[in-house]
Design goal:
The complex is a heterodimer of chains A (about 325) and B (about 300).
Chain A: H1 3-8, H2 15-29, E1 33-37, H3 53-57, E2 62-64, H4 69-81, E3 85-89, H5 100-107, H6 110-113, E4 123-128, H7 143-147, E5 153-156, H8 163-172, E6 177-182, E7 206-209, E8 214-218, H9 223-235, E9 240-244, E10 247-249, H10 253-263, E11 266-273, H11 278-289, E12 299-303, H12 314-317, H13 321-332
Parallel strand pairs in A: 1-2, 1-3, 3-4, 4-6, 5-6, 8-9, 8-11, 11-12
Antiparallel strand pairs in A: 5-10, 7-9
Helix pairs in contact in A: 2-8, 4-5, 9-13, 10-11
Chain B: H1 12-34, H2 48-55, E1 63-65, H3 71-76, H4 81-88, H5 98-101, H6 113-126, E2 133-138, H7 145-156, E3 161-167, E4 170-171, E5 174-175, H8 176-179, H9 188-192, E6 195-200, H10 204-219, E7 225-230, H11 249-256, H12 260-269, H13 272-299
Parallel strand pairs in B: 1-2, 2-3, 3-7, 6-7
Antiparallel strand pairs in B: 4-5
Classes of the chains: A alpha/beta (about 325), B alpha/beta (about 300).
Chain lengths: ~325, ~300
């Protein structure tokens, strides 16, 4: 997908539509699938992602939960152990922390503890990222917390054409997934929907744009911004490849190193803060495993190591298209 | 004296065997820890009646979620002794087949297993099964927010679960009186709109009766019950603990007089007709544990 292709369609389907269709399909094809979360039933979720599912599948399969995230994930674990496949919606990124004990001490560890990789077929959906001018703790980038729990798979949607297939892959997997949904992108772009979705491997990074002069590594809410930056650079005659990590844990190291080696000039950009982040992990992988193929030091663009600011300051807090093009100009100079 | 159908001791044998087996295992594990064969052990001495009374009437397809101090329950659910020893020896987080025995692995983050039990029980209800779930936790865990969340979920979704709160007097060193201002923990049931009861946790027959009612309610679709079994941890928190620093000898000897295994044994002693059989059971259990110990030491090259 390029940004032009995505914005061209006015009638097509958004990322929110794709996610909704994936949930619908999962509930339809597998009676063990359950959608659970706060306000996901009658209301259809605060982002309306589950709209219509309650009427279609009933209160036992599209479950309005009490307002308690640890209980939500904890009971989801019990349901998963006992034969169901819960798809849990956490309302906002900043509200997942009460569930962190269940996620880090159980979801991420039970398969090892109990000798069964297929023990917990559960998916935790989490709207993430900023630039939506929301109140405090509605614009977080908590992905590192989950990536730091070995055995927990963390993936991020980024475009309307693949969110559906990616979510279906996570739901159908027997392993537990944290599925990140950049909320700014829910309804920003449209594509013509396809009736049949091609299956995707949720562990593979995706080359969204090819280019031999530099590599831009991004994921989630930074993907469309990266594509805009690559468009700008193309106007200047610099061809930038854009790699969407898709899987944040584990990182598709082979694809990353292959793509980095082509130009040897890499920029990594993310909304999260820098310290101990997914993007600093990418740079670490490049330094340790791909150093010989680099022509210059990678550039790393992130938020500063500070809490997410009030809405009117978020533009200064997050890396912009211009920050990225500046970095690309430096590495290709 | 003859035993009649109305007599609560009618089927005393399985209860007695389970109590003795729990106590003997506790003594064995403590000894092996002192010998350096296993790393660490959390004694359950004194809590056998609260534990066995809660599971003696379970069916094979009922599920049990322990905390980390229910060896008697593990053995009652059919977990082989040698596998339980392997856990304490640090060889495996879950050496037993938890699905076959319907006995989940020990859960270390205090109270976090209660939500798993609620989810498991909820799944049973969604499928229209009659299976019930029992989850063990303690007076310390009752302070955890996650336990509150789990009980609330259980009430809302009428999960067929029995919350078995073993109030053993201490959370490591902190006495229950400093854990909460509440006079009783089972009162919390009212806050969730669920049934609640308090029982003498050192009286296996009393615990059994209360849990039996709770299981009937659960299987009938009437939802969860919080059972507070008042008991006493006669050992330390684990073998790394030193309970002399926080409790008096007087307290300990007072509770020793209410020892649940001795108490049930004395019930039986009043019945000359069962004397011979109870002696046999004690010897059976002894022999069973001796065999398991030999197997365990052999696999560790210490036989």
């Amino acid at each position: 997908m390029t940004t032009q292709a995505a914005t061209r369609s006015r009638t097509g389907s958004t990322m929110a539509d794709g996610i909704q269709r994936a949930l619908d399909q999962a509930l339809h094809e597998d009676p063990r699938a359950l959608v659970m979360g706060e306000d996901v039933g009658r209301l259809g979720g605060v982002f309306r992602i589950t709209a219509g599912l309650y009427d279609k599948y009933g209160a036992d399969r599209v479950i309005d939960s009490p307002l308690a995230e640890a209980g939500l994930v904890g009971t989801g674990i019990g349901l998963a152990l006992n034969g169901f496949r819960p798809i849990i919606e956490i309302q906002f990124d900043g509200f997942i922390f009460p569930a962190l004990n269940q996620i880090c001490t159980h979801v991420a560890r039970m398969p090892l503890r109990m000798h069964d990789r297929a023990l917990l077929p559960m998916t935790i959906r989490l709207p993430t990222g900023g630039r939506i001018r929301a109140s405090e703790l509605h614009s977080e980038s908590p992905e590192t917390y989950f990536a730091h729990s070995p055995d927990l798979r963390v993936v991020s949607a980024s475009t309307p054409d693949t969110a559906r297939a990616l979510l279906l892959a996570a739901i159908r997997s027997d392993e537990p997934f944290v599925f990140l949904e950049p909320k700014r992108l829910y309804r920003r772009y449209r594509v013509e929907p396809e009736d049949e979705v091609a299956e995707v491997d949720p562990g593979r990074a995706r080359l969204l744009r090819d280019g031999g002069d530099a590599l831009l590594v991004v994921y989630g809410p930074m993907v469309d911004i990266a594509l805009q930056a690559a468009d700008t650079m193309a106007d200047e005659g610099v061809q930038v490849a854009v790699l969407d990590l898709v899987s944040l844990a584990p990182i598709d190291t082979r694809t990353l190193l292959e793509q980095a080696a082509r130009s040897g000039r890499v920029v990594v950009a993310a909304e999260s803060i820098r310290r101990c982040s997914i993007s600093s992990e990418v740079v670490s992988l490049l330094a340790v495993e791909g150093f010989g193929s680099l022509k210059c030091a990678p550039r790393l663009l992130t938020s500063p190591n500070r809490p997410y600011p009030p809405a009117h300051e978020e533009d200064e807090h997050l890396p912009s298209v211009q920050d990225i093009t500046n970095a690309l100009r430096e590495v290709t100079a | 004296m003859t035993i009649t159908d109305a007599d609560p001791l009618t089927d005393w044998e399985p209860m007695f065997r389970a109590l003795v087996r729990g106590r003997r295992f506790d003594e064995l594990a403590l000894k092996l820890q002192r010998q350096g064969v296993i790393d660490s052990y959390g004694e359950a001495r004194g809590q056998e009646a609260a534990q066995i009374g809660a599971v003696i009437d379970l069916e094979d397809d009922d599920m049990v979620f322990p905390s980390y101090r229910q060896p008697a329950v593990a053995l009652e659910r059919g977990v082989p002794t040698v596998e339980l020893l392997r856990f304490y020896a640090g060889g495996d987080f879950c050496p037993w087949d938890w699905r076959e025995h319907r006995f989940a692995p020990y859960c270390i983050p205090v109270g976090s297993q209660v939500a798993h039990a609620v989810g498991w029980a909820w799944a049973s209800r969604l499928r229209g099964e009659s299976a019930a779930t029992v989850v063990f936790f303690g007076d310390g865990a009752a302070s955890q927010g996650e336990v509150h969340e789990a009980m609330n979920y259980a009430g809302v979704f009428r999960a067929p679960v029995v919350f078995m709160l073993e109030n053993n007097g201490f959370a490591i060193s902190l006495p229950t009186s400093q854990q909460t201002r509440a006079e009783a923990l089972y009162h919390r049931a009212a806050g969730y709109g669920i049934a609640g009861a308090r029982v003498d946790g050192n009286d296996v027959l009393a615990v059994r009766e209360v849990v039996r009612d709770a299981l009937v309610r659960a299987r009938a679709g009437h939802g969860p019950t919080l059972v507070e079994a008042v008991t006493y941890r006669m050992g330390g928190h684990t073998t790394s603990d030193d309970p002399r620093r926080y409790r008096s000898e007087a307290d300990l000897s007072e509770w020793a007089e209410r020892d649940p295994v001795a108490r049930f044994r004395s019930e039986l002693e009043r019945r000359p007709d069962v004397q011979e059989r109870s002696g046999e059971i004690e010897r059976d259990v002894e022999a069973e544990l001796d065999r398991a110990t030999d197997e365990f030491l052999e696999e560790r090259g210490m036989a």
